[in-house]
Amino acid sequence: MPRILVIDDDPGLRAACDIGLTAFGHEVTTVETGAEGLDAVRADAPDAVVLDMGLPDVDGLDVCRAIRRRDDTPILVLSADGTEARKVDALDEGADDYVTKPFGMRELDARIRASLRRHGGPGLPQVLDAGTLHFDLEHREVTRSGVRLGLTRKEFDFLALLAGHVGKACSRDMILDAVWGRGFRSETQYLKVYAYRLRKKLDDAEGAILESDPAVGYRLVPPTT
Predict the structure, then answer these.
(1) Structural contact between residues 7 and 37, judged by C-beta atoms closer than 8 angstroms
(2) Are 91 and 44 spatial neighbours (Cβ–Cβ below 8 Å)?
(3) DSSP state of 56
(4) Among 50, 47, 45, 74, which residue's Cα sits nearest to residue 60?
(5) What's the distance, CA 157 to chain centroid?
(6) How far is CA 131 from CA 147, 165, 166, 207, 225, in A?
(7) E strand or H helix at 220, and its extent?
(8) Share of the chain residues as helix, strand and coil, in percent rounded to the nearest 5
(9) Which residues, at least 6 apart from 173, have a Cβ–Cβ distance to it below 8 Å?
């Protein structure tokens, strides 16, 4: 599993990256400050770094510059500032890509994958199994006992996220952050609609596979048939 270091002072975003990127096949470590990030780079040599520009202790550009002086680890910069000048500054300091907040976890995953490919990094898992559910992550298809479910893009992202944490409840905020983006946290009705659609396609009228946890969110219980 590629090891991804996320350096960001927003605890909600760190949690979303941890849940979302882990579900997409990464091993994730998160830290809050630039100093902690540089220590983690030196100690753990991650395969890629996701770096926020607005850190509490040091400018993200300085962290980017320090990492790049050390090696050619892929660096994906995050910022709420989408101006061209800021992007150019980050790229000039050695960043491989620039993602403007808010963003979807699928977009971030795709950009990490592309950066790892360009740098000849470790391969990412292409399949995921949860009981009789088989996920083809590359082609974004799910089968149950060999029968294709025909999911939409968002349905796939929702179910794949839960499958990456099979048996554990994922919170509503975490699911919304990972599948729709952090700007959608108030849209909890999306989860009810998509859970209903998925249960129909899973033939799960009783919610025994896609469970609803009223206090938390949703969990996937692997089907056996």
Answers:
(1) yes
(2) no
(3) S
(4) 50
(5) 10
(6) 14, 13, 10, 16, 8
(7) strand 217-220
(8) 40, 20, 35
(9) 12, 15, 16, 185, 217
- Return the C-alpha torsion angle 145, 146, 151, 156, nearest 10: 70
In this prediction, residue 150 carries a pLDDT of: 92
> Is-cis flag, bond preceding 11, omega within 30?
no
Residue 157 buriedness (CB in 10 A; 0-12 / 13-18 / 19+) = buried
Tokens 């909890």 belong to residue? 188
User: DSSP for 98-114?
Assistant: EEESS--HHHHHHHHHH
| Tokens 């510059």, residue located | 65
Q: Which domains, from first to last, does the chain contain? A: 3-118 (3.40.50.2300), 127-220 (1.10.10.10)
For each successive 10 residues of the chain (225 residues), what is the average pLDDT?
Answer: 92 89 89 96 93 92 91 89 77 88 85 82 72 88 94 90 86 83 81 94 93 91 92
The string of DSSP codes covering 130-181 is: ETTEEEETTTTEEEETTEE----HHHHHHHHHHHTTTTSPEEHHHHHHHHT-
Residue 2 · residue 27 · CB < 8 Å: yes
